[in-house]
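Quick one: structure for this chain?
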Amino acid sequence: MKRFIHFLILMIVWLLLTWSLQWQEVLVGVVVVLIAELFLGDIFPAGAVKVFNPVRFFWLVVYVLVFLWYVVKANFDVAYRVLNLYLPIKPGIVKVRTRLKTDMARTFLANSITLTPGTLSIDLVGDHLYVHWINIVSEDPTRETEIIVRRFESLLERIFE
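Got it. Here's what it folds into:
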């Protein structure tokens, strides 16, 4: 059943990428997806299917909107720092703690931090995440965690845990 769900997901992605329902495109898609599932089906994360729960899917949509808001906000912040003649930055690496338990949730958190301008996830060791931050505004680890991690973490808990 797990492989069939993966097949459907990959086939939907194929159809969206090709944007064609011609029989040749669909046939090539079926072949490519079957080969991908045959060779790579075991590496798909087990928790990925959880997102199809309607409640989790709702929180995923909310998460995407919140994430986009923070990306836009961070873009303006980085643009201000670049365009300012005095370049008001205080870069550094901070160590923040996450309460997420699943690998998929932690991966989403690290990727969300990296995709947000001004921050870059460097390493994840246990429940600590090392982040390069363009402008450290606090020396307090709990405050840094609040600023960087908590905005995404509560939503990711609802989606993946």
